[in-house]
Design brief:
With 266 residues, the chain is of the alpha+beta class. The chain folds into two domains: 205 residues, Bira Bifunctional Protein, Domain 2 (BirA Bifunctional Protein, domain 2, 2-Layer Sandwich), CATH 3.30.930; 45 residues, SH3 type barrels. The chain is built from seven helices and twelve strands. The strands form two sheets. It has a seven-stranded mixed beta sheet, sandwiched between helices. The protein has a five-stranded antiparallel beta sheet with strand order 11-10-9-8-12, with no helix packed on it.
Length: 266
């Protein structure tokens, strides 16, 4: 099946992006808008395979098969959120911290656009008042010009009907702000944040990104977590992240590093 055809970028997105063009870096200059897609990550990956340059971005009004980590569904009702994927072509040392940098960028972009302060939870979740409002999904793919990463993110902007299993765990920007929130403004500021933090990684300023993430993850420190690895389920107390972006957990057997897989916060 061929990809759906992009449509002209709506004015309520084009105008805010135009206002911040000098802060977007490589992001936001080539944006493809779709009324609906199965997954923005899939559309961006196909674009990357055909040679799309760094910063090429896909935005959809809805997704029929949006996904998060571990194959989970990301509920994507029409007009209720931001469903975005962008192509990056990072060098090796940058890749492990891409999700960390994107989480910081979303939190900062949301705060600039709405005034809402959010918390970060390893590895890819953005929370406001204990409820999830946004998430990041990074997927590597091959292309004509080598390996690249599709960096996708979803943000719940306005109230929507969520599946019963997540209804009590999710929130939206408008619910937390108590006022209407313009999706275009949030997108523009999040892409600006991503441009800044990605440039820092590219320039070797990893410490700035890590410190910004740690500053928004205070609520995570000291939480009990469980995770799976070869040999079974392990449990311990989260202590933060190390300089590679791995979650550091204190256990009875000593410190452990969690670099991938499912983590359950207790």
């Amino acid at each position: 099946m061929s990809d759906p055809r992009p449509q002209p970028l709506p004015e309520n997105f084009a105008v805010p992006l135009g206002r911040v063009v000098n802060r977007l870096g490589v992001f936001g200059h080539k944006v493809r808008w779709y009324p609906t897609v199965a997954s923005t990550n899939d559309i961006a990956a196909a674009w990357a395979e055909r040679g799309a340059g760094e910063g090429c971005t896909v935005v959809a009004n809805s997704q029929s098969a949006g996904r998060g980590r571990q194959g989970r569904v990301w509920t994507s009702p029409a007009g209720a959120g931001l469903y975005v994927s962008t192509v990056v072509r990072p060098t090796g040392p940058v890749i492990p911290l891409l999700t960390i940098a994107a989480g910081v960028a979303l939190a900062e972009g949301i705060q600039t656009a709405t005034g809402l302060v959010s918390d970060l939870k390893w590895p890819n979740d953005v929370f406001i008042n204990g409820r999830k409002v946004a998430g990041v999904l990074a997927e590597a793919t091959s292309s004509q010009t080598g390996i690249c990463v599709v960096l996708g993110f979803g943000i719940n902007v306005s109230a929507a009907v969520y599946p019963r299993e997540i209804a009590d765990l999710a929130t939206s920007l408008e619910r937390e702000a108590g006022v209407s929130v313009a999706r275009g403004n949030v997108l523009a500021e999040c892409l600006c944040g991503l441009a800044q933090r990605y440039q820092q990684l590219t320039d070797g300023q990893r410490g700035e990104v890590l410190d910004a993430w740690r500053g928004r993850a205070v609520a995570m420190t000291g939480r009990c977590v469980q995770w799976s690895e070869v040999g079974g389920i392990r449990e311990g107390t989260a202590e933060g992240i190390d300089d590679s972006g791995a979650l550091v957990v204190r256990t009875d057997a000593g410190p452990a590093r969690v670099t991938a897989g499912e983590v359950r916060w207790l």
